[in-house]
Amino acid sequence: MHLTIATAGHIDHGKSALVEALTGTHPDRLPEEKARGISIELGFAHATVDDVVLSFVDVPGHERFVRTMLGGIGGIDAVLLVVAADESVMPQTREHLAICGLLDVPGGVIALTKCDVADDTMQAVAEDDVRELVEGTALSRAPIVRVSARTGQGIAALRTALLAAAASRRTRERDVPPRLPVDRVFSVKGFGTVVTGTLWTGSMAIDASLRAWPSGRSLRVRGLQVHGAAAPLAEAGQRVAVNLAGVSVDEVSRGDVLVGEGVVVPTRRLSVDLRVLPDVPPLRHGTRVHVHLSTAAVLARVLLPAPADGQAGRVIAPGASAAAMLRLEGTLAARRGDRLVLRSYSPVSTIAGAVVVDPAPPLRARLVGTSPATDDLDLSAMVAARVAEAGASGCVAADLPARCAATVAATAKALSELEGAGRVVRAGDRWVSTGVVREVRDAVLARLDADAAADPMAGGVPRAALRQAFGRRTRPEVVDLVLDALAREGLVTGDERVRRTSGGAAREAVDVRVLARLDGAGTVGASLAELETAEGLDRKVLAAVLARLVKARDVERVADQYIASRHLAALVADLRALRDAGAAPSVVEVGWFKDRYGLTRRTAIPLLEWLDRTRVTRRTGEARVLIAG
Fold first, then answer.
1. Are residues 353 and 471 in the same domain?
2. d(CA 408, CA 507)
């Protein structure tokens, strides 16, 4: 087992000396640091205690180096908050603790240092101050250990407290590809470029292919060291040194992130849930801030929604939270659920934190969002929502794992299921909701009809003109998808010039009429004979209409009934919502299903069999169970 711990605390409170006392290694490595007796860069040291590797990231305590501290605090398992007994709580103690809260550091241990130069009264006062400071934070129940790095007082007890923190550490994401924020870059003679960092997720092996963001450069792992020793594999949570092949030392930088496929998406916009610290001024719309994500930092503007009550002003009060958009001035590689720290532009100080709701929101996305901690959408629903939000611009499949905080395989499976259910379609390298495709379809037909009425002799509309007719927010591939579908249905003809076929408009009207009839029939639907009687259509004509509607995925045939696809999608969504809320029965029996959806046994049985085929349910004897997914 290993535990990655970052120090935190005010300058000259003894963080580096304490790390040396715990590990036998002084973390300061720069001559300037040793000469001045303060940490400027991140320092690293480790020790093995009772088969647990304690890996320390020693951060600078000076306010000028908070950016460096932010680069070291990300991805850790616990914090070692250091407070000198002879000085008690100081400004950087408060700021470092606030940063730990904004980054959701799960807990840790508090060390009251320099007890050899503070009498019992001073130690007691300092301990009271610390207890008051950490009240209501993740460290509110953390042990306070009185220590002296100079005399060795309390060091053994501190090790014991840190081992206890290891036992309750947060579970790491190990089933996703690797993600390594880079905190150091240097060159080793005979080996080449080496980067170091704390591996946030997954595992990393020799010869693995990675990508460096924000540059997008492809890299290969030549060699690995974990805690200073050569290793074939590094796992999430470990301090890692990576020897990279095919890249020079000036082609990768601190602040870059090395990742596997689908972990992050490079972006210049972030949809976030933002929380302002309680002791800072209100945060106003348009404020320029420094945004920190692990070792990376960019400038950004905070964009806030207009107040729902119509009152003037866009502002987040101290201690309050709100949805916001961050318009970045540089590129960040982010993932849903990432935690950010916001610092004021000038003078620089920590003012807020944020959780990424969507790392690549549509350009004109509304300023709404909910925290991942309270978001109850399952993956399929989240993927469907992302595709729908993209509108006619379409959603890039490669971005979905990072936008949904899922694996590439899981999002591909969700897309396949949604496609099978007729809710999304592929248009080139993008995915579009079928509802949006229907809207574009209606708009294309309306444009063709209008142009034909205005100039019957024109011979149709150029395909290129149709691609451009709906603006930049409608991808040409979506228009082509619609035109190809209309051509297959016999409603339009032509390649470079597109026109309505003779009778096409009348055929479209009949299709709309039949679909409206089925829309009104709910999950019961209607048979061919029932539709024939209701619509007064010839059976062959009606069969052709239904075939077109099924092909367009507006309608699905379930046994002898034709049911509008949207009703089937709503049925599936309701069953899954009941399952996720724990309100569904342990087994789905025919009687419960009939009563829930107002069906007869004759109409319920075919629907249950359809749910079996589409893997929403699985039959066990005479009953069924809901399948997860």
1. no
2. 42
66: nearest Cα among 35, 27, 25, 96: 96
In a domain, 172, yes or no: no
- Residue 382: which of 333, 417, 422, 428 has the closest Cα? 417
Pairing state of beta strands 184-188 and 192-198? Answer: antiparallel
Task: Find the CATH number of the domain harbouring 303.
Answer: 2.40.30.10
Domain span at residue 423 reads 376-502
Task: State pLDDT tens for residues 328-346.
Answer: 999 999 999 999 999 999 8
Q: Does residue 94 register a pLDDT over 70?
A: yes
Instruction: Say if 366 falls within a structural domain.
Output: no
Q: Can you tell me which residue has the tokens 């927010």?
A: 473
**Average pLDDT of span 590-608:** 90
DSSP state of 268: E
- Per residue in 494-508, pLDDT tens? 778 887 776 666 667
For residue range 518-545, list pLDDT tens digits in order: 988 899 999 999 998 888 887 888 888 8
Residues 194 and 160 reside in one and the same domain: no
> Who's near 151: CB < 8 A, 6+ residues apart?
116
Separation between Cα atoms, residue 199 and residue 12, nearest integer Å: 29
Q: Which of 259, 291, 314 is the last residue of a domain?
A: 259
160 lies in the same domain as 25: yes
* Cα 226 to Cα 95, 234, 447, 627, distances in angstroms: 31, 7, 63, 41
Per the document, the length of the chain is 629
The residues, ordered by sequence, that sit 6+ positions from 309 with a Cβ below 8 Å of its Cβ are: none
Residue 78 lies in a domain: yes
Question: Tokens for 543?
Answer: 């069969």
Q: How many domains does the chain have?
A: 5
Q: Which of 452, 472, 502 is the last residue of a domain?
A: 502
Token pair of 605 as six digits:
């049985």
